[in-house]
Design goal:
Elements lengths: L11 H12 L31 E2 L16 E7 L5 H14 L5 E8 L4 H13 L4 E5 L7 H9 L3 E4 L17 E2 L1 H15 L4 E7 L5 H14 L5 E3 L6 E2 L4 H15 L4 E4 L2 H13 L6 E5 L2 H10 L8 E4 L5 H14 L8 E2 L3 E4 L25 H7 L2
Parallel strand pairs: 1-13, 2-3, 2-4, 4-5, 6-13, 7-8, 7-9, 7-10, 10-11, 11-12
Antiparallel strand pairs: 12-14
Helix pairs in contact: 1-6, 5-6, 7-8, 8-9
Length: 388
């Protein structure tokens, strides 16, 4: 889920809002943030044909052809900061899905470069250009809500993904689509603690400072650690910010190694960035810890390279779930076209790679670039085209 250079100093208010939002369940945890599992189509809202708040799995996402409609449509993807492979893969998937609808006449993509004012301007610009459906990764959090409410009132079907912007799905925008974020963090931490044999020092690596998403993952990690008195969460006051960037992650982890010395386990909410942290351990000639994250081609390949040298080094992943953008675009199109859509808002993830389980070994494709994401939802041909 993932960001690079930060102008967060310019977005301090947004960061504070995002932190407050996550603390009160603003991100999807299976109920809050996406209307609750019992919610249904917003009959009282502006988009009555789209069910809000359902919980399911990736297989519940339907073919986009059901929602294309026939009238000409412009769609947009407003990214908070398109700085890494996760973001690029998500945009590529959005474009590939949009291309399946012959009546989509234009696809607009913007990059706010982690600047809240630019994020607001990007959405306003899309509305001015006549974009009918907008999917957005709202890194600026609740600071975006007034702008999205205005777009919604103007008849634009907006669907935020992954990072909550607050407000009420079905009323202030079509729906909020994400994985069950807190469960994602708890699942990874449960596995990590088990692989640590229930004892040792654990750290959680997150993204940009103030990220509602990373904070919610952290809450899940805390719940898992609380069940094991032998495990010490070194970053007890919050996740360690890495900006979801490989180079910064390497620098940050190098500092953690110096500060703490012995680190037995790491939970990260970005496998692609984790490779920087792994390099920090190798550079310091320190035993690699148990490590869990979302999947990445290089994250898997590094395990194959180093697990024999460092027997304690084991990894597990959950899907990087770029594919939530498919459900988001479906919901946006269905809303705008007045087509019934009952797809879930929240998607439960499970461990998909586990180096301790012979039946779930990490997957690495040598024909693909190191930073490819195999679970993204893109075909092998699309992945290769993305990294040309």
């Amino acid at each position: 889920m993932h960001i690079k250079k930060r102008a967060v100093a310019a977005t301090g208010v947004a960061a504070a809002m995002a932190m407050a939002l996550s603390a009160c369940g603003g991100l999807s945890t299976g109920s809050a943030g996406s209307g609750g599992s019992g919610a249904s189509a917003g009959a009282d809202g502006p988009w009555p044909t789209v069910k809000v708040g359902g919980v399911g799995v990736q297989a519940d996402i339907q073919d986009i052809s059901k929602f294309c409609g026939t009238k000409p449509i412009k769609v947009g993807y407003a990214d908070g900061n398109n700085n890494n492979t996760w973001r690029k893969a998500t945009i590529a998937l959005f474009k590939a899905q949009a291309a399946k609808c012959k009546n989509i006449t234009q696809v607009v993509v913007t990059d706010a470069q982690n600047n809240t004012q630019k994020a607001i301007s990007d959405i306003n610009s899309m509305v001015a250009q006549g974009v009918n459906v907008i999917v957005t990764f709202g890194d600026a959090g609740q600071a975006l809500l007034p702008t999205i409410q205005k777009a919604n009132a103007a008849g634009v079907a907006v669907v935020p993904i992954v990072s909550s912007i607050g407000g009420t799905p079905g009323k202030d925008y079509v729906d909020f689509v994400s994985e069950n974020v807190e469960s994602y963090g708890k699942n990874l931490a449960d596995w990590t603690v088990k692989a640590m044999h229930g004892k040792g020092n654990l750290i959680m690596l997150g993204g940009v400072a103030g990220s509602a998403y990373s904070q919610t993952v952290y809450e899940g990690v805390k719940k898992a650690v609380a069940q094991h008195s032998g495990v010490r969460l070194l970053n007890a006051d919050g996740y360690v910010a890495t900006d979801w960037d490989v180079s910064k992650t390497q620098q940050v982890v190098a500092g953690l190694i110096t500060k703490y010395g012995k680190i037995d386990g790491i939970v990260s909410d970005f496998g692609g960035g984790s490779v920087g942290g792994i390099r920090a351990f190798i550079a310091a000639d320190k035993p690699l810890p148990v490590w869990s994250a979302n999947d990445s081609n290089e994250f898997a390949s590094l395990w194959y390279q180093y697990h024999k040298r460092y027997p304690s080094y084991q990894i597990a992943t959950e899907s990087s779930r770029n594919w939530v953008v498919e459900a988001a675009l479906n919901k946006g199109l269905a809303a705008y076209n007045g087509i019934t859509d009952t797809e879930p808002s929240t998607y439960n993830l499970e461990i998909i790679e586990d180096s301790t389980n012979p039946k779930m070994m990490p997957k690495y494709d040598k024909s693909l670039p190191a930073d490819a994401i195999l679970s993204s939802g893109l075909t092998i041909e699309q992945i290769k085209a993305l990294y040309k």
